[in-house]
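Entry 14. Two folds queued back to back today. First construct below, sequence then structure tokens.
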Amino acid sequence: MLIDAQLNDFEDFSPIPVGQYGFVIKEPVEITPQTEPSDIGGKQYVFIIRPEIVGGEHAGKKARVRLSNKSKASRYFLKSFVERVGVNIQGNGSFSSEDLLGRQFNATIGETIGVGENAGKKYSNLETESVVAV
């Protein structure tokens, strides 16, 4: 049986090598409301950001950044990322996800080794603390 699985029609999902890259946010942020308990109260969200590498050998490849506002610690990383790419945070702590579109920044891609059932598996990760707006 011939199976037309479109195995030639997808992005290259191989890990991005460790290093520093220029990125741009071209896609709208994926925002998912959460219902689980939190240490902060209020509305909780998970934000998936897929910035694209600009220039160089890996131009066009995308990284994936998952941020949330579930806890004080996760809020810190979300706020840090938003500020580092140059988006204004309002006095009440809110920001517009549309303001992330078109933001350019430099950041380091690092490598994480999985644990548990993913022990030993290597993952590329965008180190949010390395983000610098351009």
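Second construct, same run, same settings:
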Amino acid sequence: MAVHEFSDETLDALLAALHVRAASHPDNPALIACWPGVREERMAAGCRELGRRGHAIRSMPLPGRTPGATRMGWAVAAGA
């Protein structure tokens, strides 16, 4: 039996936030979190679940909090 970490409502909010970010910041479309439902450390899991549900989501490196560091952000794939 699969464990459902994210509710449908949380995943819908995450997908909507990804689309809003892509539309409002086409030069920097990635999110690192979608509060309160998907914290930064759970974004990979949330985005994998969206992918399993058929949504085109991609990871992309973003500048980190310290010089030279990177962290992962997530965005809807172009044209999705």
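Quick look at the second one. The CA atoms of residues 47 and 57 lie 7 Å apart. Residues 8-76 form one domain.
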